[in-house]
Structure formats: C-alpha cells, structure tokens
Amino acid sequence: MYWSLTRGVQTATFQYGMRIYNRGSGTVNNATFAFAMDPAPTKLEYVAGDAKDVVVSGGRMSGTIPSIAPGKFATVGISGVFPSVNSTRWTATVAPPAGVADSDPSSNRASDTVTLDSPSTSILTMIWQDKETTAPGEDRVYTMHVENRGFVAVPDARLLMTYSLDGAADDTTTATVECAGRHACPTWADGKAFTVKDGVIFDRRVALKARSELVIKVTIRTQAKCTAGQKITVTNKVFVGKGKGVDVAGQTTDSRVGYIASRDCSSDTSPVTVTKEQGSETVATGQGRHYELSLDNPGAKSLLLTLRDAYKVVNATGERSTATVSCLSSRGQARCPKWADGKAFDVVNGKVIDAREVLLPAKSNIRFRVVVNSRVECAGGSKIEAHNSASVESKAGEPLTSRTSDAVKGYIACNDVSTATDVRQSGTEIGTPLGISAVISNSAGVAENVAVETQIPSGVAIRDQVKPTCAVTGAANGGTRCPADLAWDPARRKLKGTVPSIAKGESVRIGVDGVLGMTRQEGAQPASESRSATPTDLQTVRQTVRTTASALGDTKPETNASQAVVLVPRAPVRPTDPSASASATPASPSATSTPASPSATSMPASPAPSPTGTG
Questions:
Q1: In this structure, what CATH number is given to the domain that contains residue 327?
Q2: Shared-domain flag, residues 61 and 40
C-alpha cells in the first residue's frame, strides 16, 4: 500500500490517491481498505478509483477492491477539506479477503502526521485612472483589479477604497461602483450613484476564490466650488485585507494621484474666528461652569452665520444640565441677538445653542457668556469629563476661512469624602506613647486635592522633627496618592496636607506619633494641697483629636469631620512662692470654704473610654 500526505493548509481542499499493491503471484479478489483522519476533516469523499461499496462516515472511509492482478495495483481517490488545527494524523489499512493468507502483513498499514499551516494567499492589487487631470464636474474613471493568485480562497476579504482632496475649500463628490470583469460580481457594486462621505467610496467584504480575479470600475465626479491654489490634488487608494482567518500577502495596496483644474478663488473666502474659553477647568456637581464664546469677523463684508454650541458629559450617569446664554460685549456694528436673553433652559441632546443665526458685520466681534450647570450621580469611579464645542458656518453657503470651530474640556467633581480619627493609647501616665491617625476615604467618583487637617490638643507632646506617616489603603489601583506636603505644624498643632487624588473605594491613612504630656487645671488651690500632690494624685481630662477634610464636589460634607478622645494627666497648680504662702494670713471663711470646681478637683479618674471616633 502507498500513501503520501505530510503537509497542508488549514481549511484547504486536499486530493490524494492511495495505491494498493498485489505483490503476490495470484489475483486478489474483494480485498478491503479503510482510511481515517483524526482530527477529522470537515469534508471527506471518495472521488475516483477502483473501489466499490465505499462508505464514508465523519472522518472515516471504507470499501472493497473487486480485483487486483499479480504485480498490479488498485487506486482509491480521496478528497476532503483539512480541519482548522495545527496538525492531523491519517491512517490507511488494507486486508485480504477471508481465507486468504497475506505473506507480508507488515505492509498492510500506513500512517503519518500532516502539518497544517495557517491559510494564506498571494494578492495582486492594482488601480488605474483614465485621466490625470479633470475639470470640475468631469468624470474620472478608476479601474481596480484584485487577483487572488494563491490556492486558498479568502471567504471574507476586506475591500477598501478611499478618495481624498487637498486644496479644495468646498466640494461635492458622487460616485458609481460596478463590475467590469467576467467573474462573479458583489451585489453592492450595482452602478447606482451615491454621495461620497468622509472620503470612503466603499469599505466592504467580498469572497475571493482561489485563482480568481475581481475587476471593479469606479466613476467619480467632483464639483469643486473653490480652491486655494491652481490645482486640487486627488488621491485614490485601495486596500485588501484578510478575512475569516486567511492571511493575505503580496501587493495588497495601490494608489493613484490626480488633479482637478480650478481657478484660484482664495479671495472669495471670508475669515471668521471662533474662540472658546472656560472659567474653571473643574467645578463641583451642581455648580455653574462659565464659558466665553467669541466670534470675530476681520473681513470686509458682513456674514450671516449659523452658530452651534454643543455640550457633552462623559463617564457620568443621571446627568441633568441647564444653561443660560447672554452677551458680554460687542465691537463694531455687531449686535446681541434676541435669543441670547440670559434665561435658563434645559440642555436637550447636548444642544446649548442649536443652529441660531448671528449677524456679524465686517470688522466686528461679539462675545457670548454661556453658563452650564450639570448635576450628575456619583455612582461611577471614573473622572467625569465635560466637553464643550462651538462652530459656525455661513448661512449663505459661502466658504469660511481661519478657525470656524473651537472646543474645551473640563471636569465635574463628584465624590463622597469621609474621615475616621483614631488614637492608640495604652495608659494615662506622663510620657505614655501615643499613636494618632486619620483615615480619609472616598466612596464615589474621584476626589482630588483633598485638604486634610488633624488638630492635636495641647496635652499631647509632638516632637518638632517628627516625620508623619502616610499609606494608601483599599484597592490602591485607581490612582490614589499620599500628600506630598504632609507635615506637622507645631505652631498651630496641626498635622496637615493635601491628598492629590482618592479613587472610589480607596483611602489614605495619615498619622503621627507623640507622648502624653500634662495639662493644668483652671483656678488655684491651697499651697498645702499643692505641695502634697504626687503623681498618684494626678487626674485625667478628656481632650479631643479632630480631623477635617475638604474636597470640591463632595456630596456629603457632613461626614468630613471626625474626632477621637485622648485622656491627658492633669496636675494641681503649685504656688509660685511656697514660703509666702506659709506666712500669709489665712483666707476668710468665704474665700476658703468655697469648694473648687468639680471639673477641676472633684472628677475622679475614670476608666479610659474607647479612643476611636468617626464622622
């Protein structure tokens, strides 16, 4: 038995012949054969040969060879389509009829692995134009030739043709697409005229059979109203791309350059400049953003313009926007249009100024004030963008030069910042170490430039050279960063800094270490009592560590402050001159019998409460 098949292409058709030899001295009748491929081909069939009673099932085939004379062979023609795998293995076997002995059964079986390459084909793409230069409104005919020179079909190849002009101030281009070859034509190449938009004549998918060609004729007509030079440059390009996993190689692109002859009408154009500026790059949700829109006509003739102003919010849900439009100033003969009355209205479909007329006389200018107020929901975790653009066009259709549009981008701050203050205290003796920290969190949107202050009371001693600490907590993948200016201010007894950014669901923890000091009670006590005071007589007072945070766009500012309690030792006030106190005349009963304020002398030391407070 003889079989040769070791290499192929995925999804390609294969056709091979299997030979079955009779090397004995007698005729062999009704020998049987079998063929199998695993993974199975997507198609398998018997196409020709000496077999009968052939049965095909999936990736298997079997049949009978009626007769093979001595020294001769029988053939079995097999066709199929390779599977989309990197390799497959085939096995072929033959067996003599029942009761007939085979002198060499070792030659009755053959098998091998077929390596399958990724499908690819060679493409030749060319384009011609019938004339290099045309007049405005004259037809130019392109002929595009795409040839698949390979043996693999491209079932869904991309076919792209573009058309661009350089030097035309205004143009209208129409085209027709039809087939010119003898091969099958795609249905969309129907010869019907259409207007070319955005420079794309067609961007379609076509089936390119193996060893086939496609010829398409494209007729283009351009009406160029005006050009800034003597000729308009025309560039036409074609491109063929792969389809459904079949790579294409060879010459897949081609282009032609031509010209449209036209007069120089640059003097016919009218200059106008549109300028858009915004007052603040970032505003809070519900806060008005001020835009200044300027229209300037330095030319020598009046212009009747159509003005549009568009507004779009990105990365936000539940957006509701209102706006007002009024005039700031004018120069020359320009007058404020009546529709710019400063009255508030809802912004619908992003239209702030929807195709309004503006008369702009020669050498004049007009400035509008546009205020947009957007309220958004802070459910997302992305920075909310606000895009605003303005553009003008001539009401009469005349060409405009200079800058006819302008745009700016800003942001809407929307977040929910909160703080939690914590004091770690292990005792109430003077010198006891303390750990003071505050967590600043954000549960919605993005909070930026969050100003944070932690006020530490006088009963806590902080070394001037102490280094505050900071760490990002939470997911820590949204751009949250510690403040670069975090510092201890000994004069104001504040730990403060500005957190650049806190993403949704993330937080920063700032902290500083200190020790317990002492605070004195208010009012004096008798010298004897002061002298007898010892460290065991010390009482404690509750002092507060308070943290505040401030962020633009915070929807719940009531959660921005938090506090925690620290227990600070309090000692009696000792007289400055003990000897003078001992020789002094005793105080009158009214002076000595008045008990000290309970807050100063009578409050017993209480167990330390939980030092942590949140807000």
A1: 2.60.40
A2: yes
> Looking up tokens 């002298």, which residue turns up?
531
Contacts of 413 (CB under 8 A, 6+ apart): 282, 283, 284, 285, 384, 445, 446, 447, 448, 551, 552, 553
Rg, Å, the chain Cα set: 45
Of 119, 14, 29, the C-alpha closest to 69 is: 29
Total of domains in the chain:
4
The span from the CA of 370 to the CA of 352, in Å, is: 9
Could you read off the pLDDT of 204-252 as tens digits, one per residue? 998 888 888 999 999 999 886 655 555 778 898 988 887 676 778 888 8
pLDDT in tens, 512-548: 999 998 765 444 333 333 333 344 456 889 999 999 9
Cα 66 off chain centre by: 69
Contact indicator for 549, 560 with CB cutoff of 8 Å: yes
Q: Cα-flanking dihedrals φ and ψ of residue 123, to 5°?
A: -115, 140
pTM over 0.85: no
Residues 425 and 448 reside in one and the same domain: yes
- C-alpha distances out from residue 313 to 213, 384, 388, 422, 502, Å: 49, 7, 9, 39, 21
Return the residue matching tokens 């000595």.
592
d(CA 97, CA 530): 126
The whole-angstrom separation of Cα 436 and Cα 421 is: 8
Nearest to 515 by CA among 550, 466, 470: 466
d(CA 566, CA 135): 90
Q: Do the Cβ atoms of 561 and 546 come closer than 8 Å?
A: yes
Between CA 54 and CA 35 the distance in angstroms is: 11
Q: H/E element holding 123?
A: strand 120-129
Phi and psi at 477, nearest 5°, equal -125, 10
**Are residues 501 and 461 part of one domain?**
yes
Q: How far apart are CA 238 and CA 218, in angstroms?
A: 12
3-class secondary-structure state, position 388: strand
- Looking at the fold, whether 196 and 50 belong to one and the same domain comes out as no
Answer yes or no: is 588 within a domain: no
DSSP run (H or E) holding 579: helix 578-583
Q: Which of 563, 573, 570 is nearest to 599 (CA)?
A: 570
Which residues in 235-255 are b (16+ Cβ under 10 Å) and which e? ebbbebbbbeebebeeebebe
- Domain ranges, residue 161: 121-266
CB burial string 503-535: b at 16+ within 10 A, e below:
bbbbbbbbbbbbebbebebeeebebeebeeeee
Contacts of residue 491, defined as CB under 8 A and 6 or more positions apart, other chains included, come to none
Q: Which residues are bridge partners to 137 per DSSP?
A: none
